[in-house]
Amino acid sequence: MTVAVTGATGRMGEEVLDAAAERGVEVAFAVAPRPATVDGVQIQDDDRFAALLDREAPDAVVDFTVPEATVRYAEACAERGVPFVTGTTGFDEEELAAVEAASERTPVLKAANFARGVQALLRVVREAVAAMPAYDVELTETHHNGKRDAPSGTAKTILQAVDEARVDAADAAPLERVYGREGHDPRTEGQVGVHVRRAGDVRGEHEVLLAGNDEVVTLTHRAESRGVFAAGALDAAEWLAGRPAGWYDFEDAL
Ligand code: NAD
């Protein structure tokens, strides 16, 4: 198994390099906007990504960067049929459509969260909402102070799961998303509050609160190291290599 790593000088890119070394996955090449050396791995200029794909033909690419770069990498992988795993978040509609289009020509696995515990949390959230469809739901997420997008991609995935579970359980309409509250702003029926905190080096925490009927249920996931995401992304890459073109998510790989 060989992987190419993008954004290799970033927080997640470095974790992926470490996780690959730990499990004996060979790094075919690694790129970032500025060449560097990370833990003895030579990081090459990002401009050379397509040429390196041609030369090294990795079994998969693992990408944690920014949406505009992810689109470019996905297109280069699609042209060559190289499996593409991305954990990048914060896409607008056009960028997401471009990555989806790439999946018509090569296998693409996109996940906002590569922690196994978050996949379990999603299942538990669906079950809790189905059991308590009339309860108020509030979501709080916390991440490090360098995170660009808000709310997190994982928060959006959880909100989607809440809406789907409400539709299935009670044929209820999707909840109106209210981002923080200020001033005279009482809660009304059919809302879900979304609260975002950015501080220090918090790896990622998501809490779903359900309340009603004089009771409160809180479901929390906290990532305690970024290695969790890197390991999940490499599991996904190993699973994706050799699959037919298509759009996959982390749950498929699990
Ligand atoms: P980071 O800022 O530490 O690293 C980003 C990397 O991308 C850096 O190497 C940077 O040089 C590179 N980069 C930035 N702009 C670029 C461009 N225009 N072209 C090419 N490369 C560029 O960020 P991070 O904390 O490593 O997170 C990266 C992404 O991964 C974010 O979208 C984050 O939300 C997401 N993330 C996902 C998961 C998950 O499990 N899916 C977990 C953590 C982070």
Structure description:
- With 254 residues, the protein is an alpha/beta fold.
- 38% of the residues lie in helices and 27% in strands.
- It has 8 helices and 13 strands.
- The strands form 2 sheets. An 8-stranded mixed sheet has the order 3-4-2-1-5-6-7-13, sandwiched between helices. Strands 9-10-8-11-12 form a 5-stranded mixed sheet, covered by helices on one side.
- The protein is elongated, with a radius of gyration of 19 Å.
- Nicotinamide-adenine-dinucleotide binds at residues 7, 9-13, 32-33, 46, 64-66, 68-69, 87-90, 111-114, 229.
Keywords:
alpha/beta; 38% helix; binds nicotinamide-adenine-dinucleotide; 254 residues
Give a short summary of the structure.
The chain has 254 residues and is of the alpha/beta class. It has 8 helices and 13 strands.
Supply Rg. Answer: 19 Å
* Helicity, as a percent range: 25-40%
- Ions and ligands: nicotinamide-adenine-dinucleotide
Which class of secondary structure composition applies to the elements? alpha/beta
The dominant shape is elongated
Point out poorly predicted stretches: none
Total strands: the figure is 13
Q: Strand-and-helix sequence, N→C?
A: EHEEEHEHEHEHEHEEEEHEH
Widest β-sheet, arrangement of strands: 3-4-2-1-5-6-7-13
Could you describe the largest sheet, including whether it forms a barrel? 8 strands, mixed
How far apart lie the N and C ends?
18 Å
Hey, roughly how much beta strand do the residues contain?
A: 25-35%
Mean pLDDT: 96
Number of helix segments?
8
